[in-house]
Amino acid sequence: MRSDEANVRTVVIRVPATSANLGPGFDALGLALSLNDEVEATLTGQPGVHVTVEGEGAGEVDTGEGHLVIKAMRRAFGLMGVPQPEGIRLHCRNRIPHARGLGSSSAAVCAGILAARALAHSEMSDDDVFALATEMEGHPDNVAPCLAGGLTIAWSDHSGAPRKLKVTPDQRIRPVVAIPAVRLSTEAARGLLPKDVPHKDASFNAGRAALLIAALTLRPERELLLAATEDRLHQRYRAPVMRESVDLVERLRAVGVPAVVSGAGPTVLAFSTSDTQDLIAPEVGNDWHIQQMDVDPVGANVQFPETR
User: Fold this and answer.
1) How far is residue 65's CA from residue 288's CA, in Å, rounded to a whole number?
2) pLDDT tens-digit series, residues 22-55
3) Tell me: the pLDDT tens digits for 175-211?
4) Could you report the per-residue pLDDT of 88-133, keeping only the tens digit for each?
5) What CA–CA distance (Å, rounded) separates 74 from 267?
């Protein structure tokens, strides 16, 4: 992710969409998906910040200092102890839908931090990148797969520092996302969660999360995935603000398709297996955008224009 070419002033960052929770893995599990945003960042040497956006968010997001990628770059430059650049030009090619539970904010934060590190030719460690991204985004389960790719487990150590472990899902795992037209903020969805949950529900989810890791990496069978994606900690509590999403999850599961709410919603993620492929589209209908994806095995990628 670094270059020893000190004269490089432009960097291109590709960051994947992510799906967090995956049912029982609340705030712990995340999956990188084959849908990418691309950010081209240039230090211009001229005063001012100039941001252009194509695709998702065009005409909606801030195009100055308030842009999330710029904010992340500024935070990273400050943490690295290098002078803030006089001028930054940013061009964003966005494909990840905003406020749909597919990690668009995580992607922007990670892109900004990685761009700053590359442009500063800094020795900032990957652990420090992860820690800053988690601090800014607030949820390590989306940041971890965005940076590392694949299937990730995120947790905090005894000091509160975020940690992550990447595991490789079975190559037969084929995620399918159903994306609605409506948006939902993570804050609104998280605000519905209770402060305490029954012990039996916590125990239930612990077992299902362990089973899900085994199913995704060793035995991606329909019956195992269906049991492994059961959840009692967050989806039902969030149902009032995404009734259609929860209804779709229930319809898919009723016909045997392992389905969950992606992240905080409202996108629905299903795991397509050889015997469920034909069951998904009829249940989803025409009000959702269905997209078959692969698991992104690499995560965030940093390139300099001359190496592309």
Assistant:
1) 34
2) 999 999 999 999 999 999 999 998 899 999 999 9
3) 999 999 998 877 777 788 999 999 999 999 999 999 9
4) 999 999 999 999 999 999 999 999 999 999 999 999 999 999 999 9
5) 31
Paired strand residues for 158? none
Amino acid identity at 263: G
Hey, what long-range contacts does 134-137 have (CB within 8 A, 24 or more apart)? 134/162, 136/71, 136/72, 136/75, 136/109, 137/105, 137/106, 137/109
- Asked if 11 and 113 touch (Cβ cutoff 8 Å), the reply is no
Could you give the CA distance from residue 66 to residue 53 in angstroms, rounded to a whole number? Answer: 14
Contacts of 234 (CB under 8 A, 6+ apart): 21, 26, 193
pTM above 0.90, yes or no: yes
Q: Count of CB atoms within 10 A of residue 160's CB? A: 7
Asked if residues 150 and 297 have their Cβ atoms less than 8 Å apart, the reply is yes
**Rounded Cα distance, 81 and 103, in Å:** 28
Give the integer Cα–Cα distance in Å for 308 and 304: 7
Strands 162-167, 259-261: parallel, antiparallel or unpaired by DSSP? unpaired
Per DSSP, helices labelled H in the chain are: 68-80, 104-120, 126-137, 140-148, 186-190, 199-217, 222-228, 235-238, 243-254, 277-284
Q: What would you report as the CA-atom Rg of the chain, rounded to the nearest whole angstrom?
A: 19
- Of 268 and 1, more confident: 268
What pLDDT is recorded for position 1? Answer: 33
